[in-house]
TrEMBL record:
It comes from Acacia crassicarpa. Pfam families: RVT_3 (PF13456). GO terms for molecular function: nucleic acid binding; RNA-DNA hybrid ribonuclease activity. Residues 28-146 form the RNase H type-1 domain. It comes from the Eukaryota. CDD domains: RNase_H_like. This is RNase H type-1 domain-containing protein.
Length: 177
């Protein structure tokens, strides 16, 4: 089951990263690219209803633009969640233009990455797709930047991201610096 209702969160509606409901997991994804070299990466984190780290990833995806990096992040994150057997996923991205195209079933301009994401979303699970403000996607952002030069699957939160994870679990959010 797929929830194709796009939830565009305005800053006055959302005050920070929000924990998913009981029984659900939240997948935050992001893409990153460098202007100088066109190198790109994607990353994401899956967290439980308490905000705890379940698994994260960073992946080097070679040469592509920022929009394609965002698309890669969605595909890689969904594939990871599916492969791990999760059945209820809230997917959050700060790339509203990519999410809009992903959820527009009538859109004929979808590339193969977005078609792959759609195929993944129609498997036997529940996926709710949301757009969130960039400042509340900072852990996925950091992982995507790491992915520019490194591919890794993370069973534990990296020490460098622990403070952000703990702050978000407590409902204390601050902007990306």
């Amino acid at each position: 089951m797929i929830n194709l209702s796009l939830r565009l969160n305005c800053e006055d509606q959302i005050t920070g990263w929000e924990k998913p409901p009981h029984g659900w997991l939240k997948l935050n994804v992001d893409g990153a690219s460098t202007i100088q070299s066109s190198k790109a990466g994607c990353g994401g984190v899956i967290r439980d209803c308490l905000g705890n780290w379940v698994v994260g990833f960073a992946k080097s995806i070679g040469d592509c633009n920022a929009s394609n990096a965002e698309e890669w992040a969605i595909v890689e994150g969904l594939q990871l969640a599916w492969d791990l057997g999760f059945k209820k996923i809230i997917l959050e991205s700060d790339a509203s233009s990519v999410v809009n195209v992903l959820l527009d079933i009538s859109c004929a301009t979808c590339n193969s990455l977005l078609l792959t994401a759609r195929d993944l979303m129609t498997l036997n699970w529940q996926v709710d797709v949301r757009v969130i403000p960039r400042e509340f996607n900072r852990i996925a952002d950091a992982l995507a930047k790491r992915g520019i030069s490194n591919s890794i699957l993370l069973d534990e939160c990296p020490t460098s991201l622990r403070a952000w994870l703990d702050q978000e679990c407590l409902g204390l959010n601050s902007p990306i610096v």
